[in-house]
Amino acid sequence: MLRRGRFEREMDATASEYTSSMQADVRLFSPVVQINMAHIIMLAERKIISLEDASSILRALCNLHQRGIKSLDLKPELEDIHMAVEKFVIVATSDKVGGKLHTAKSRNDQVATALRMALRSEILDVQTALLNLVGNLIALADKNVNTIMPGYTHLQIAQPTTFAHYLAAYAWSFIRDIERLVRAYEQTNSCPMGACALAGTSFQIDRLRVARLLGFNRVVENTMEAVSARDFALQTMSALAILMSNLSRLAEELVLWSSTEFDMISIPDEFSSTSSIMPQKKNPVVPEIARAKAGRVGGDLIAGLAIIKSLPQSYSLDLQEFTNSLWDAVDQTKSSVVVMSKVVGAIKPKAGNMRRRAEESFVVATELADALVQGAGLAFRDAHSVVGRMVAKAVAAGKSPKDLSFDDLQSAGREVLNTDIQLSELKFRKALNVEECVESRALPGGPAPRAMRAQIDGLRAKIKGYEKLIRNEKRSITKDGEKLLRQARKFR
Asked: Do 52 and 114 lie in a common domain?
């Protein structure tokens, strides 16, 4: 259809296959049909085409909508989904009537609009999956506010905390991922239609009318930018890459905590595999794949940035390859969040092992230093040095924390400060108790059970708010699509 005027020969079959976006365009089918419906309704309302021609075209588009993408000719020589839809309309009507479908629009503004429409729905789906993941983290945290475990820095045991505190840390990270996607959605929700190839059209079209029919909040103001801008998609890909980085950190720790060396959680059989040769193996394959997928999504973002960075205004076919990276990032993220949510909902903490890991280490050293400040009047740096010396001597002597005596503290104090420590043995013992240590961290955001209850309540409130927002956006998209279809059928 496109070549008969400018070219004398058909495109080379290899080149046609190479440049075609038909396979990737399948997910744009519904948006493209809707865009054409909205555009034709607007053209008829503006008297740019006749009501009779509009009715014929809309009848064909409604038929296509009902029959689905399988009714299209998806040969590579048609180049993309836009030309496949146009061919369908022309065959269903005539060259004269169907040929008016493309009046006052370009594939450039149409693909940009279809991309935004499809991406809106994908963003909402990822957010929904994220909310489910956060919900599972919170449900598990709620059961483990008193489950003592060691907290780590540099992957070395640092301070006592709770499993609930650990889980909530990831829940807050994923809430921020949802917030980033909310902002990406806002940038995506602008309509490029009417920009045509780059400079708009001399036809007296109504861009805002088309935007409203398609459920957009606004139009993209500059027609050149409308067809070439993909920063909204880069913003989404950036949010997805950050999300997957957070998910990968969780996945990494699930691998670690389920290992024989840590043995703090159990990953259920349905999310594990075994070895082809070693019959005893239980491999945490789902978190491992999620960890790898994070690298893939990060690569998609880098690929997108590399494609965009050197493109002049306005449209180049390079953007076709950019779209592949976008959809891969979306698909890998969505599937990873969905399956990891199931894993989180099914893991079993080994509370006894967690507590033992904490108690067998010098995890309460900071609490003891604080006790020396509060109870003995030491400057913190002096307290830090005294406790550090006590621990060093205990390690050298092969002592565990439970073997520490009040004399060990006094001996360290005399070596470091040349004086006895004015602290009661009762306060010394209290500082070495992991439960007392956790209970004392009741500050906002801390691991103390009452502080954790407040965090969990706050997270649940966040979930409730975002569930309402996402539900409203999904409902709006659905209602706008149904309304458009009803208006298109009125012309029949």
From this structure: no
- pLDDT, one tens digit per residue, over 301-340 is 999 999 999 999 999 999 999 999 999 999 999 999 999 9
Q: Are residues 233 and 256 in the same domain?
A: yes
Given 50, 71, 259, 275, the catalytic residue: 275
Residue 299 lies in a domain: yes
The 10s digit of each residue's pLDDT in 273-307 is 999 999 999 999 999 999 999 999 999 999 999 99
Structure tokens at 152: 């780590």
As a whole number of angstroms, the distance between CA 459 and CA 454 comes to: 9
Determine whether 259 is an active site residue. no
Question: How much is the mean pLDDT over the chain?
Answer: 95
Domain assignment present for 458: no
DSSP 48: S
Residue type, 259: S
**CB of 44 closer than 8 Å to CB of 103:** no
Q: Provide the b/e sequence for 257-281 (b: ≥16 CB within 10 Å).
A: bbeeebebbebeeebbeeeeeeeee
Cα angle 125, 129, 133; round to 5: 165
Which tens digit of pLDDT belongs to each residue from 21-71?
777 788 999 999 999 999 999 999 999 999 999 999 999 999 999 999 999
pLDDT at 2 over 60: no
Please say if 154 is a catalytic residue.
yes
Do 85 and 134 have their domain in common? Answer: no
Nearest CA among 287, 224, 220, 213 for reference residue 250? 287
Indicate the number of domains in the chain. 3
Nearest to 289 by CA among 349, 229, 339, 353: 339
Mean pLDDT of 214-229: 96
What pTM did the predictor assign?
0.94
Long-range pairs of 355-359 with CB within 8 A, sequence gap ≥ 24:
355/147, 355/148, 355/149, 355/434, 357/149, 357/150, 357/157, 357/262, 357/264, 358/148, 358/149, 358/150, 358/157, 358/160, 358/434, 359/401, 359/402, 359/434
Name the band, by pLDDT with cuts 50, 70 and 90, for residue 14: confident
Give the residue from 38, 25, 43, 138 showing the smallest Cα distance to 82. 25
308 and 180 in one domain? yes
CA nearest 148: which of 364, 444, 369, 340?
Answer: 364
| Whether residue 292 sits in one domain with residue 179 | yes
d(CA 65, CA 29): 9
Closest among 146, 145, 155, 221 to 190, alpha carbons compared? 221
Instruction: Classify 221 as helix, strand or coil.
Output: coil
Take residue 172 and report the two structure tokens written for it.
């807050």
CATH number of the domain that residue 392 is part of: 1.10.40.30
